[in-house]
Write a structure and sequence with these properties.
The protein is of the alpha/beta class. The protein is built from 20 helices and 13 strands. It binds iron/sulfur cluster.
């Protein structure tokens, strides 16, 4: 097997992870989505412009050709090469950006993250190991990653957009470790017998392992890893003490919410309906009553003014509303055109659709409030109205967060994606699985971000499904609110 940067990093996380990748790849469950990979590619492309003119070594299935192309490019005395590729004793790497100044080499590893992580040091240490053994003189090894505080104003300022952290000293000190690890991988990767490896924090850090389900397949049902609301660190700590069954956890010092969840799961308890508290919450609402939900997308590289890397940019909302008690439910919606900054037109429409001083319900309101606050900051002429909406938002999540309404089927969660099916198990019209194409926020986000790449016909279809998805979010809120009213009257 040829080792690569990503395989080496897999093995740094866990040898068995790499073993499973090689021997039982069918057992893998998807944990990261395509957008993470797309982000990496996009950030990589922009980072190359930090270095001006460069020679790009095109990817080829035949790695030997990439290595030969790199050798040709390195014949220049002063050159910047992207994806420069090297091979040393079964170890292969492509360097994101390599700068050659006469005999000195600088290497740059580009990450789409906004923070430095230890695993990046392992990644670049492996590259340095290969280049040092090939006889190159390395003067710099640098991690390039996004600056989360950068706010775009006019043209992109690449030197402000990226952090560059020089780590050569650290990775030189890691060279013995790299050598040892490569030897370890070599001795365990080809063995036919499955590697033995206990689960632990390495299963979720630095990345969520796609084989976790496989490695925990023999645990009995009702085990600690099925619990929501407990930190991974606590779960593994209990597990290492041999405490992982729900009934055993009941004897431990855990929060009342976790205990309650376990008791509901084990003893099939009757739902909690704290009528007084629910009534108290409902009494804080008033007509006209609006139900609001935004959809947003993120850009690692900010395309618009006032945007930071990965900031939530709203492109769509759904708004159901009831003007007076017993009047019909009405609906408004907004979905921005593709390939434009959606914020101004969305903000203008929002202040037309929501009058001043009305009660607005959101589910998990901190998200909607942040979006509106950012819009108010960006558009001073709309700020008063937007902040009026912001100040009148209330949170429909509260009765579920406080466990004033709780059923076994909520499985310890107060997210609308758990609360809704728990309250309406047999309502196909409230089931997100019955929607076409878009079933959750990340599918909506990716669909909108890719809209401009589609044909006109495809765009029409995606837009229709985006509207249906977001419409269901606020319709679901209306149904939940009605359910709350119904249970206090029963
Ligand atoms: S789940 Fe954990 S033990 Fe299993 S392969 Fe992944 S990291 Fe290793």
């Amino acid at each position: 097997m040829n080792l690569s940067k990503s395989k080496y990093c897999d093995a740094v996380q866990c040898n068995k992870l790499l073993w499973l990748e090689e021997h039982l790849p069918d057992q893998k469950k998807e944990v990261s989505n395509q957008s993470t990979l797309d982000n990496g590619t996009e950030v990589g492309k922009v980072a190359k412009d930090l270095f001006g003119k460069h020679i790009d070594i095109a990817f080829q299935e035949d790695l030997q050709r990439m290595i030969e192309d790199t050798k040709q490019a390195l014949k220049h005395d002063n050159v910047v090469i992207t994806e420069a590729s090297f091979f040393y004793q079964d170890n292969f790497c492509s360097v994101d950006i390599l700068v050659k100044n006469n005999h000195d080499i600088e290497i740059y590893e580009v990450k789409s993250s906004t923070e430095m992580k230890d695993i990046y040091l392992d990644d670049i240490a492996y590259q340095v190991y290969i280049l040092l053994h090939l006889g190159y003189s390395i003067k710099k090894a640098t991690i390039v990653y996004l600056n989360s505080n950068y706010v775009r104003k006019g043209e992109l300022e690449l030197t402000k957009l990226f952090h560059m952290e020089e780590v050569l000293d650290i990775v030189l000190r890691k060279q013995e470790e790299v050598k040892r690890k490569i030897g370890e991988i070599d001795s365990c990767i080809n063995q036919q017998k499955e590697l033995e490896q206990e689960i632990g924090m390495h299963c979720v850090h630095p990345y969520e392992c796609p084989y976790f389900e496989y490695c925990t397949r023999n645990l009995p049902v009702n085990n600690i890893f099925q619990m929501r609301g407990m930190q991974n660190r606590s779960k593994f700590k209990f597990y290492q003490q041999g405490i992982y069954l729900y009934q055993d956890l009941l004897q431990e010092d855990i929060s009342w919410k976790l205990k309650q969840q376990i008791e509901f799961e084990l003893y099939d308890k009757r739902p909690i309906v704290n009528k007084e508290k629910i009534k108290e919450f409902l009494n804080t609402l008033s007509y006209p009553l609006y139900f609001l939900d935004f959809e947003t997308f993120q850009q690692p590289i900010p395309m618009y003014d006032g945007v930071k890397p990965y900031m939530q940019i709203p492109f769509q909302y759904s708004l159901h509303y009831i003007e007076k008690e017993n009047l019909d439910l009405k609906h408004q919606e907004f979905l921005a055109a593709a390939d434009m900054d959606p914020r101004r037109s969305l903000a203008e429409q929002l202040v037309k659709d929501i009058p001043l001083n009305v009660c607005v319900l959101a589910y998990n309101m901190s998200f909607e409030k942040t979006i509106i606050k950012n819009l108010a900051y960006l558009y001073p002429d709309l700020s008063n109205h937007l902040m009026n909406i912001h100040d009148h938002i209330q949170d429909l999540m509260i009765p579920f967060y406080n466990r004033d309404y709780y059923t076994k089927d909520m499985h310890g969660s107060y997210s609308i994606k758990y609360v809704l099916p728990a309250l309406f198990p047999n309502e196909p019209s409230l089931n997100y699985h019955n929607l076409d194409m878009i079933h959750n926020g990340s599918e909506a986000m990716n669909s909108y971000a890719n809209l401009k790449t589609l044909s006109e016909e495809e765009q029409i279809l995606v837009r229709k499904n985006l509207l249906k998805y977001c419409g269901l979010d606020t319709y679901a809120m209306v149904k939940i609110w009605e359910k709350l009213k119904q249970v206090v009257d029963e």
